[in-house]
Each structure stands twice: as structure tokens, then as C-alpha cells.
Q: What sequence folds into this?
């Protein structure tokens, strides 16, 4: 399949009023902060011991392994985020630090290529014997991704060589020769192997990734057999009663039609399935990807682009089961969804995937990080009642306040790498065309039929619907600019070099402007107004309710702007929505106000809990802010789905 | 405190169109069925091994202990249910079987009075060393209750003697002499000791019960110290991270103001607090009871009279947190609530407690048992979506279909003893007065100032509001008939011997009819109509919704009578509620119909999950049946709180 290409980050520069504050946090706050954590330099943060584990494995220091079985992956994610950041903005000191840590990784690697400090220090001789829980292949995958990102950013290939050594060992251990049936308990190495194949051209890495996918859904199930071995040692208590659907091992991947199990595992697997489908022209696999995508986004996804609605086990449940106050909706699962959607867009060239990628990035991924970059949400509820989020209940996992760096720090570094690689989501390219998928002020250099073309996008999206794309080419070249028309844009106008033109998006959701490019200015006016959105009435939790959106942004009510007991509010959709840009609020954001009513609770305090009293309404103005910004002020209630006043 | 007396069951005869079918089940189905289970005679039921454990402890047979640490309590509850049943309807064969099993219990008892087959067989020498989890005192309490019930029903005191021996040992072990600080991890022995004191007059049993209560809330906490002992052996995995509030040990009982922790433990403790408050004229303790009662019923109780809203740990959470589809609301917790309420009514002579007792009995307790007596609900949700109640989610505990007898069979025998002792809830008595608390056709013999008085109540309550109470006395005697006027009765008329009379309930909620009794007929007409009820708007899950009730009965929608997707229905309260009695439905019940609308989901299947489509309503008739009867037909959705059409 002729996939669209990602344009490398060092050819993209983002300068965007909406995103800059977040991207800046990665470089200024998160990367240095995480480095301190990896080195245990922060007192009030749970001990990481990550670098220390590498030093012990490298025999530079003595000591014991400390941390989770997947502790190494924190370093991999840090390197990947740094690599993406370096690609966009070089920083020799930071690069030097990475080089040093890569030297350390090389020293920590076993002679045969094996790399995992938990097993090297703590359980030598036990490698690859607990694939269900061991996370060695998961960590390997993250280091492969980091290696490729660092190579692409800097041209330095030492980490690629380290990971090639490990990949070779993995191919040997899990390849056809050894008659192996194993595959990872947490998908990720498939993505890493594919990327390693992309930069090295080593086909056996591709083959190994495919093999891992093809083995899933085996009968008898590999993990259930593995745990029966006499020397099997359980790592996680909660896996005692293991459900093979948790790791999507319940069916061969090609036969999976519904999104099941742990949402992050699922998302990473779907990414790998898309990679392999494209590489092998495997239509059956691509169809499975499409079915899984449809099931997710049509039946199991929140309006905020989050997935995994069960608070227990961070997993998918059943169609239309989308509770708002007890869901998990892990930030990492939305990142996985965005990664999967981008791959599907690369393969199918259909803009519909980007409607979801955009939703996930603008809402859940951003909500995952505080505006100061120092605290994070794992869990992304759509309704919060802080006093009620208490331990030992079904809301134990719901946090009304972002937490500082946690022990299992998957989400913070995952957010960091996503923000640092945002450029990779904006554009896609073919040899004589470029696809504009997200509306983020930026410039990009690409090549049309061997000729350098520069494109500059300027917009105040999502608050304003004007998007200007200027194309500059040294020499005139014929090419096509594809501009995604989002599903929520019902009206738009297009001007080319100041002249209004009749242009309509095709069935693929893109406006295709094929033209002689030299110095071309395309101006789009999207009719972007706040709008009322409703869920399919089969979503029991949302029927009779509305959400407010503008562009991809979901808005929510917070107690600080309204009165307590948000579920007692009713929004009157007929009264219209007014948007105000408030410069001083949350670093500058738009606020949406609308009219409605609220059921009064005055006088009830002396009454029984249940009476025949009629509800008394009072007129109220409702104030909403963008969902990603919730929880950045006073702790209080938050609500996305508001009752509709009929 | 001069408490009202319970009238003994052998002086009460119930013949009631609403209750008979359930009471009959106890005798005909549950008692023989449970006997077979205790003896492992049923193949498709989880092994009980209960009688076998006693045989092994009695050295009549060889073998190992099998079952939970509290397995013995199943036998105690069976004996208590049988005793209540025998009091109402003698059955020599059944009585004989109990006598034999009491002989077995005597043989299983250690020489020093200790009685617990788990510790005797499996952990000899470990008795009373794990009070947090060991349940020895819990089982003892149930055997004490059984002993007293059997003595009251039959006059036979062998089991009372057995339990006196054990009670003496408990007093010695936990009394003042030994400087003990221990108290039970699951309250129940306090109730048992109090009852044993009632029939034996042994004041030290009363004192021991008080001591157990007084110790709770100690600092440092006894259980947390106990578990630090080197030889401590954890029994339950889920108690590893023990929260002392779980067993209400977080504060001295007199300082507790909110209902916390495991709801059944809490309820049994509140019962004991009421017993002790009355016995010692302890106003401080009674005030604590009143505060805890108010917190429960004003802030933490479902409209169905159930408590313990957390699906995890079967516990109380925070004020107004009453989720409808993921709650626990254990049947046993409603039984405990009824037991507590009855005690409070005995002490305070205030009818308000009976409003709750009645709610619990008519709704949650009855819902706990299928109409054929063969399957049971532990968990009592107010909204059920069967396809979504799946393992490994926060609805794992919610069962859309009643289960047959389970391993931890606390609820089925608890329902059995409650139904078998229903008479004890109907009337209360003083030396020259009788209180009519529930409206259940029955006759009762009581004594007014030494003179035998017979009272007969006849009604078709709760479907019909007419209640006739006929009093007959051989010789004329002056006395008072107190008739409870439920909170939901806003209008009523009273006739005495056919003559209408002006009569009003006092502040205590009772209509007091003081008269010369000889042959007196009192007829009440309660204006009982179906009614719309709303929750305090601070109950976030119910704001904007209504429930339908008639008398104490809550009504609910079931999918079998309506269309799927019940949350899409809106009830129009202005359109009125019509009640129909359907002879052939569910053994004869009233059905309530009302008008409303439903949001259509037609056409949505081809749409995205979230769109700007406006909801389309269609007119619908809503059909509701009594909540206790739900789940007796086809598996499907069920809903109590329905959206209100404003």
C-alpha cells in the first residue's frame, strides 16, 4: 500500500497560540523534571531508581534493582521525547546528556544483546519466561522507538545499533527457527521493530513484528500455558485470574471485530496491525483495523476522544457503555488512538480518521497535563464530584486534582513525546502533494517531485476559523494541497490568492487544490461556532443530555464558574451559545456562556431524602471552559454532559 | 428506658394476600432446601460441608474442615429461621430434626464451651487471635440468636445452655479480668449476648455486649495491633490494606455521626447500640443511634430502603452518593436497617422509624428473593442493563438475574429468618396498649393489664388503603390502640364501630385510640394512591428524575413491559398515574401505567456516536411493576428513577 509519509520533525516548526504553551512545557519543564526523577534527585517524588538500575546492570555501581518490572521504559520514553524535542529545537547540552545515557545503556546491555535491567540484575536466567507480565518486549519496543527518533533527530546511530543487537536476539529467540510460540503480554515491540525496519531496512524485524501479531489468539493460549510451568512466578497479583482478552489474545487479530481488553495494549496493537497491513499489502488485516476502528469510535469512545470506559483494569467494556464519572479513559489510550488514527489516515488517505485524532489530541491528551506542566491525569472522567472520589470505592481511581509524577509514570512521558512530536500529526506527504490535517500555525519544508516547497500555515484555530496556508517554491511546481475539512465544519469558503473559489471536499474529506505552486496563498474560512452535540441515544448515560463543542474542543462546566451540584443544571439549547475570549483566564481561552435553569435544593436540608415536593427551577447562566483546561484552578465539580431543557 | 415489647411469634398468625406467598416459601421451599445444602445433598449447588464440619468437630466422622471461616453461621441462621417458623406453625418432624442437630452442636463444642468448627478442626490453639477476620464471635452471636429463638418457639433450652457455656467463655476471655482489649471484627455477638441476657437474666452477658461496643474506636486500634503480631495469619486477601472504618472502629461508637464502612457490620452494631442504650438508660448512646439513623436515612439510603452504595466492599460512601446501577445495597444491610429501626421504634415510640422499616421490608428484602423461593439477590441495583454487568468491571457484582444459593449464603437465610419473623415487626406492646406498625392481615393475642385481648387486622394493603382492626376481649378493659399513620398517607378517615370519628395522629406519628375495649371495630381508610416521588436534588444521580410509589412500594420499569433503552424514557407527571390490578401477572399484582415520551434511537445506527442531530421524541405509555417483583420474568433492563418531562 502506498502510504502517505510523515514529514520529519526537523522540517517542521510550530508557532501556535494554542499549542505553544504546551510544547514549551516539554522542553522547559517536563524533560528536565523527568531527568531529575530518573536520577532520584527530587525528594517529594516516588523513587524511580531508573538510571541507578542501568548503572548497576552496567556494573558501574553495586546495588539491587528497584522499581517495577517495566521501570526501564521510563528512560526510553524520556529519550524519545528528548529526540523529538531536539529535532524541532537543537540543544547541544541536552544532546550530550542523551549521548552519555546511551553509553550507559550500551554498558548495561548483555553481551548477547539482551537489555533489561530488571532481569539482568534481579532474575538472571529468567529472561523471556513470563511474557504475560515480564514487559521485556514492551521495554524493548520503547527503546527501539527512542533509538529511531534519536537517529532521525541527530543522525547518531549508537542507540540504533544497541537496539539492533537486541532485535537480533529477539528474532533469534522468537523467530521461526526456535519453534517459538511466544508473543508479548503488552504490545509495543511490534511498533518498535517496524520502525527499526524502516531505518535499517532489515526485513526480519518486519517479519518478527508480523509473527508476533499472527501468533495472538493462539489455541491453546500461550500465556495460559506459560503460567502452568512449574517455575512460573507471578509478578502482578491482579493477573492471577487472567483474562486473555485483556491482552487481546482471545482471537486471532484478523478475527477481532470489537475493541476488547486493556485499552492501551489494544491501541498499540492496532497501530502495529496498520503498520504490517501496509507493509504486506494485507487487505484482510486492514479490514480488521477498519472494523476495530469503527467499533471504537462509533460505539466505545467518549466525546473527548478517550477510550477504556471501565475504571477496573483500564479496559473496554460493551457497546455504548460510557459512564462519565467512573471511567478510566487513560491518557495513554487516547495517545494510542491518535497514533492508530494517523496510521489509518496514512494508509487510506481518508480525513475521517483525523476527526478522531484531533478530538483525542485537543481534549484528552491535553487534559492529561496541567498548564504548568508539573502534574498529570492518568484518568480522564467527564464528570467529577471531588468529595466522592474516595479510596475503596468504584471511584478510587478518579482524581479530582492532577497528580505529580507517579510511580508508574506512563502517561507523563507519553504526553511529553506526543507534544514534542505534534508536527508529525499536522502534515502528511506524497511525492507531489501535501495533506494538511490539523490547523496549527507552523511552517514545513517538503519536496514536490524533487523540488523544495515551503508551506506556512497561520491560524488562531480552534478559537477562530480562519486558516491561511501560504506555499512558496523556488521554482514553480505542479502539486496538490489537500486540506482536511473537519466533520464539524458545515460551511466554509476558500480563497486562492485572494480570489474566491468554488471548492468542495471530496468523499475522502479533503479539499484538493491542485495547482501550479510558486507563491500561492490559500485562505479558508471555516464557519466555526460553538455548537450543541448529542450522543447516540443508546448511550444510556448521555441520553437527554447535551455537550457543548467548538471545533474539536469539548467544553465543560466547572464549579468555580458556576454553582455547586452541576448535575442539577439544564441547558436551554434554543437560547444560543455565546463565546467570549478571555485573555486573563487560564492563559487566554474562550469561554462559552449559555442560558438554562437549575433545580433548587434550598429548603431540602430539613426534608426527608424522598418526598412529593415538586422541583423548583431558577434561571441560570451556564459558563463553560475547554475540557483540556479543567482542574487548573480551584478543586471542584466538573461536568461535560449537561441535561437538556426540552 | 421503658421499651415497647415485641409480641412473641406464637401469639401472632399472619394470613395476608401480599405476604403469604413469601412466608409460605420459607416453610415449604427455603428451610428444606437449605437443609439439603447444609448436608451437601444438592449437586448443582456449591458444597457447603457445614453439617459435615460439625460432625468432624464432634469426632463423629473423620475429615478436614471445608468452607469459609464463617461457615458455621449458616447452620445458626437455619436454626433461627426454623425456630421462627415453628413458632408460627408447629411441625414436630422439623422440630425433631433441629433437636438432633442441637445434639450434634453439643458434641462439636469444646469442653471449655468454645464452639467453632473452623478453629476446632483447622486451627486449634489459634482461637481468638484474629478477631478482625476470624468471625468466631460473629458465628457465636448467630448461634445465640438461634438458641433464644428456638427456646422462645419451643421452650427447649438445650441450645441456650450450649451458648451460655460459650458466652461464659467469651466473658472470661474478653471480660475485665483478663485485661482484654478485643472486640469482634464483624459485629453480631453483641446482639446475641443481649438476647441471651434477656432469656437468662445473666447481667454479665449484657455487660460484655456493652464492653465490646465501648472498646470500638480504641487508640491504638486493636485490629491494627493484632495484625502486627508475628504469628498473625491473614485470612482474606482484600483485608491486607485494612481500613478500620470498614468495621466502624475509626471512632468510639458514641462519637460516630455518619454511617461508615461495611453496611451490614454497621447495621448490626447500631442494633446493639440501641439495645445497650435502652438497657443502661444511656442517653448519649441513644443520641448516637439517632444521629447515625438520621445520617443513613436522610443522606445515604436508597428510596428502596437499601444502604451501602459502594459496589466495592459493600460499604457506605459519602452523603447523597447513591448511584443506581453500580451500588451494592446488600439485602442483609436492609434487614439490619429494619432491625435497627424496630429497636428505635421500641425505644422512642416514634412511628417515623417504621416508615423506613416498612420501606426496607417491602422493597429490598422482598426483592432479595425470587417468587419461587429458589434464587436470591445479594445486590439490589435500581437500574440494570444486563449486557453491561460483566466481570472485571465496576458492575461485576451486579447480577441481572437472581442467583441460586451461593457459597457465602448470608442473604438467603437472612431473608428466611426475616420473613419467618415478620410478625415481630407488625405489633409492639406495652402493658395496656398495642402499637400497629405494619398493615398486614393477621391476628394477635396480647395482654392488657393482665387481661387477654385479641386483635385482628384485615387489609389488602398495600394495594388497597382500607385497614380494619377488630379488638376482642373476654372482659372489658381500658387500653390504647396506637395505629401508625405512615408519612405517605396524607388523608385518612377513621371509624370506630361504624361511627366516623375525628382523630389525628400525634407528633409521634401514631393515631392513639384510647377506649374501653371489649368488642371494638376500627376501620381506617388511607388515601393510598400511586404517587410521584423525587429525591433531594443533591442526589446527583436522581436530580431531574422521578420515582413512582404506592404506599411503601417502589415501582420500576422492566424491559419486558416496555421497550429497550429505558433511560430514554421521560415520565409526564402531569398526565397522572393509573393503577390496574392484574390477577394473572406475577401471582397477582398492581401495575401502574403513565404517559410519557421516549427519545428515539432510530436512524442513529448509521451515524457517528456524537452529532448535532436533535432528539426526536415519540409518545409512549410507561408500565411499572412493584420493585420487589423485578427480575421474575424475562431478563432485561430495569429502572426505578425515570427522567421527568418538564
A:
Amino acid at each position: 500500500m502506498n502510504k502517505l509519509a510523515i514529514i520529519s520533525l526537523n522540517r517542521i516548526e510550530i508557532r501556535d497560540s494554542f499549542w505553544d504553551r504546551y510544547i514549551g512545557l516539554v522542553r522547559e519543564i517536563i524533560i528536565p523534571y523527568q531527568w531529575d526523577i530518573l536520577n532520584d534527585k527530587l525528594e517529594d517524588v516516588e523513587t524511580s531508581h531508573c538510571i541507578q538500575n542501568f548503572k548497576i546492570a552496567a556494573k558501574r555501581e553495586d546495588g539491587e534493582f528497584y522499581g517495577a518490572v517495566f521501570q526501564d521504559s521510563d528512560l526510553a520514553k524520556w529519550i524519545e521525547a528528548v529526540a523529538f524535542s531536539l529535532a524541532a529545537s537543537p540543544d547541544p547540552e541536552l544532546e550530550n546528556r542523551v549521548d552519555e545515557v546511551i553509553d550507559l545503556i550500551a554498558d548495561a546491555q548483555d553481551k548477547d544483546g539482551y537489555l533489561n535491567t530488571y532481569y539482568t540484575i534481579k532474575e538472571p536466567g529468567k529472561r523471556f519466561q513470563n511474557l504475560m507480565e515480564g514487559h521485556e518486549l514492551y521495554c524493548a519496543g520503547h527503546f527501539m522507538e527512542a533509538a529511531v527518533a534519536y537517529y532521525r533527530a541527530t543522525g547518531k546511530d549508537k542507540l540504533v545499533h544497541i537496539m539492533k543487537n537486541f532485535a537480533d536476539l529477539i528474532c533469534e529467540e522468537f523467530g521461526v527457527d526456535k519453534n517459538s510460540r511466544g508473543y508479548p503480554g503488552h504490545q509495543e515491540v511490534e511498533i518498535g521493530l517496524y520502525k527499526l525496519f524502516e531505518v535499517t531496512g532489515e526485513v526480519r524485524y518486519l517479519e518478527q513484528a508480523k509473527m508476533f501479531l499472527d501468533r495472538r489468539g493462539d489455541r491453546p493460549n500461550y500465556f495460559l500455558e506459560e503460567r502452568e510451568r512449574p517455575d512460573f512466578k507471578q509478578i502482578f497479583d491482579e493477573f492471577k485470574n487472567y483474562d486473555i482478552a485483556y491482552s487481546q489474545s482471545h482471537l486471532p487479530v484478523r478475527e477481532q471485530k470489537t475493541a476488547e481488553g486493556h485499552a492501551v495494549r489494544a491501541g498499540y496493537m492496532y497501530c502495529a496491525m496498520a503498520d504490517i497491513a501496509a507493509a504486506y499489502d494485507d487487505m484482510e488485516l486492514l479490514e480488521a483495523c477498519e472494523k476495530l476502528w469503527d467499533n471504537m469510535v462509533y460505539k466505545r469512545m467518549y466525546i473527548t476522544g478517550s477510550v477504556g470506559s471501565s475504571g477496573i483494569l483500564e479496559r473496554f467494556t460493551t457497546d455504548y457503555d460510557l459512564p462519565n464519572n467512573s471511567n478510566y479513559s487513560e491518557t495513554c489510550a487516547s495517545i494510542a488512538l491518535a497514533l492508530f488514527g494517523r496510521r489509518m489516515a496514512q494508509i487510506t488517505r481518508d480525513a475521517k480518521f483525523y476527526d478522531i485524532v484531533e478530538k483525542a489530541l485537543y481534549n484528552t491528551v491535553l487534559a492529561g497535563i496541567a498548564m504548568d506542566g508539573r502534574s498529570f491525569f492518568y484518568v480522564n472522567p467527564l464528570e467529577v464530584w471531588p468529595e466522592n472520589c474516595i479510596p475503596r470505592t468504584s471511584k478510587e481511581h478518579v482524581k479530582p486534582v492532577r497528580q505529580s509524577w507517579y510511580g508508574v509514570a506512563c502517561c507523563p512521558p507519553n504526553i511529553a513525546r506526543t507534544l514534542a512530536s505534534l508536527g508529525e500529526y499536522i502534515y502528511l506527504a506524497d511525492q507531489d502533494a501535501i495533506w494538511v490535517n490539523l490547523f496549527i500555525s507552523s511552517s514545513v519544508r517538503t519536496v514536490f517531485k524533487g523540488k523544495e516547497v515551503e508551506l506556512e500555515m497561520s491560524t488562531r484555530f480552534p478559537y477562530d476559523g480562519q486558516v491561511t496556508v501560504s506555499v512558496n517554491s523556488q521554482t514553480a511546481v505542479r502539486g496538490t494541497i489537500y486540506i482536511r475539512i473537519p466533520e464539524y465544519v458545515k460551511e466554509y469558503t476558500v480563497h486562492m490568492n485572494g480570489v474566491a473559489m468554488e471548492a468542495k471536499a471530496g468523499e475522502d474529506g479533503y479539499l484538493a487544490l491542485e495547482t501550479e505552486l510558486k507563491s500561492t496563498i490559500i485562505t479558508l474560512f471555516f464557519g466555526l461556532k460553538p455548537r450543541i452535540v448529542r450522543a447516540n441515544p443508546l448511550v444510556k448515560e448521555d441520553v437527554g443530555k447535551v455537550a457543548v463543542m467548538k471545533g474539536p474542543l469539548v467544553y465543560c462546566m466547572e464549579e468555580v464558574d458556576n454553582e455547586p451540584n452541576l448535575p442539577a443544571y439544564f441547558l436551554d439549547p434554543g437560547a444560543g451559545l455565546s463565546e467570549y475570549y478571555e485573555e486573563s483566564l487560564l492563559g487566554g481561552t474562550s469561554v462559552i456562556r449559555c442560558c438554562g435553569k437549575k433545580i433548587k435544593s434550598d429548603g431540602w436540608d430539613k426534608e426527608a431524602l424522598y418526598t412529593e415536593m415538586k422541583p423548583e427551577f431558577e434561571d441560570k447562566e451556564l459558563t463553560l471552559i475547554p475540557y483540556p483546561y479543567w482542574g487548573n484552578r480551584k478543586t471542584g465539580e466538573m461536568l461535560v454532559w449537561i441535561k437538556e431543557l426540552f
